[in-house]
Amino acid sequence: MSDDTATPLSGEPAKPPLSNGVKGAILLLVTMGLILVAGFIFVLVVVVKRSHQPAEQTAGFAGRFGVTDIHVAPGDTVKSVTMADDRIAIQVGSDKNQEIIIVSPKTGQEIGRIRLRPLSDLASREVAPPQEGN
Could you give the 3-state DSSP secondary structure of residue 30? Predict the structure, then answer.
């Protein structure tokens, strides 16, 4: 009777079985390689997907939104322009009324208006300086 498992046919010595530590290291190496390949594929898919989508039209604070019309009443003039956070405040007015126009710096669109009205006729009248000699 011959024992086929005792000695290899080619005459090479038998390889010892792998220890648990070596098996774990091989499994870890294969797993990390698969994660690395999956990461490269994910990045490639995202780059290709973004290159085929049209770019969103976003404007920065440099006024790249083009020309936008902000309507003011005839005779009104710009008193001041202030920028804070995500808003541009434009104060316009004449002797009779005042308004603050709120504009988005990203889109150039008017967000809203604030009308400044006097509380009474007394507040809207000019106070004459006191006359001397009385």
Answer: helix
Structural tokens at position 97: 């009324």
- Residue that has been written with the tokens 């434009």 in this structure: 90
- For residue 128, what are its two tokens? 């004459």
Q: Which domain holds residue 103?
A: 77-122
Is residue 9 a part of any domain in this protein? no
How far, in Å, are 24, 47, 73 from residue 40 at the CA level? 24, 11, 59
Residue 31 to residue 25: CA distance in whole angstroms: 10
Q: What is the pTM of this model?
A: 0.43
Residues 119 and 101: beta-carbon distance below 8 Å: no
Are 27 and 18 spatial neighbours (Cβ–Cβ below 8 Å)? no
Identity at 91, one-letter amino acid code:
Q
Count structural domains, the chain.
Answer: 2
Give residue-wise pLDDT tens across range 47-69: 999 888 776 555 444 556 677 88
Q: Kindly report, residue by residue over 80-104, the tens digit of the pLDDT.
A: 999 988 899 999 988 888 899 999 8
Q: How many CB atoms lie within 10 A of CB 92?
A: 20
